[in-house]
Every structure is written in C-alpha cells, then in structure tokens.
C-alpha cells in the first residue's frame, strides 16, 4: 500500500514537472520575443546590459536555491547527530555548514547586486518601451524566477520520494 502510494505521488510530481517544463518553454519563447524587441529599440550597450542581466538572473537564482537546498540537508544531518556519531563526522558537518552558510550569504549579496542591476535595466527599458511592454518585461522576470523556484522544489520532492521508494522496495524481501 505504501509503495503504491509513493508511486502515485511520484506520478503526480512527474506530471507537475512536465507542466512546469512546458511553462518554462513558453516563458523562454516570450523571453526570445522580448529579447528581439529590446534589441530593436535599445542601443547595443544597453541591449548587452539587458542580456547580461537575464543570463545572470537564472544563474544567481539557481545558485541560491542550490546552496539553500544543500544547507538544509546538512542541517538535517546535524539534527541527527547523537552520542554514536563520531567526532570526525561532527566536525565535517560543522565545517560544511559553515562553508555553505558563507557561500549562501555571498549568493545573497549577488542577488542584491542583481536586484540593483534589474532596476537599472528597468530604467533603460522604461525609456523605450510602452507601459504595457514594460509590464510584460517585469512579468517575464517574475515568471522566470518563479518557474526556476518551482522546478527546483519539484526536483527536490521527486528525489526525496524516489529515495523513499527505493529504500522501501529494498527493505521488502
């Protein structure tokens, strides 16, 4: 029954992932249309700024999500530390926690820098685009970020349930 329930949950998550991937393709298509429009109306250096921002948006958000996920796994492992855990493992977990915490803080700084750059790019685009086009750009940035977050969350859930299913199947003779 439990195996069946896990398989059903995984099927639902895989379907959600396909939906998110489809939305991601649609977002990418809108991004290409927006890119063409920005290329047509902006000066080359302004267009370059726009392209750098869009490229860095995905990288920085993905980095922040990845580091947060890894940090959460280390924190979970640290909560499982007990009297039987050897000192070397405790020290390793503490060092990884410290390193990941610092890396996440650095990534937050990158995100703040990216947010400032987004305001600069918005200011540039405001000179050339209509109010509706500017809203479309802002919506694109929000959707792109949301899809990255949803996709990462789904991947984490799928990984978790696949591990649970695998462990359960191995435990049954």
Automatic annotation (TrEMBL):
GO terms for cellular component: adherens junction; apical junction complex; apical plasma membrane; cortical actin cytoskeleton. One of its GO terms (molecular function) is actin filament binding. The keyword Chloroplast does not apply. Signal peptide: none annotated. It is found in: Cytoplasm, Cytoskeleton. Residues 1-173 form the ASD2 domain. Keywords: Coiled coil, Cytoplasm, Cytoskeleton. Its main location: cytoplasm. Pfam families: ASD2 (PF08687). Residues 90-120, 144-171 form a coiled coil. One of its GO terms (biological process) is actin filament organization. PROSITE patterns: ASD2 (PS51307). InterPro entries: ASD2_dom, Shroom_fam. Belongs to the shroom family. PANTHER family: APICAL PROTEIN/SHROOM-RELATED (PTHR15012), PROTEIN SHROOM1 (PTHR15012:SF37). This is SHRM1 protein. It comes from Podilymbus podiceps (Pied-billed grebe).
């Amino acid at each position: 029954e439990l195996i069946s329930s896990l398989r059903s949950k995984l099927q639902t998550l895989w379907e959600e992932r396909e939906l998110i991937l489809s939305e991601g393709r649609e977002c990418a298509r809108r991004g290409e249309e927006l890119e063409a429009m920005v290329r047509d109306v902006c000066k080359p250096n302004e267009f370059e700024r726009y392209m750098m921002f869009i490229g860095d948006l995905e990288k920085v958000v993905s980095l922040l999500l990845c580091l947060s996920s890894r940090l959460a796994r280390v924190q979970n492992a640290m909560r499982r530390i007990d009297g039987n855990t050897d000192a070397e493992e405790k020290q390793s977990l503490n060092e990884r926690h410290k390193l990941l915490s610092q890396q996440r803080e650095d990534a937050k700084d990158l995100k703040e820098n990216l947010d400032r750059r987004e305001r600069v790019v918005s200011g540039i685009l405001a000179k050339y685009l209509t109010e509706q086009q500017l809203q479309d750009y802002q919506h694109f940035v929000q959707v792109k970020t949301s899809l990255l977050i949803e996709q990462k969350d789904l991947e984490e859930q799928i990984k978790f349930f696949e591990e649970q299913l695998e462990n359960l199947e191995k435990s049954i003779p």
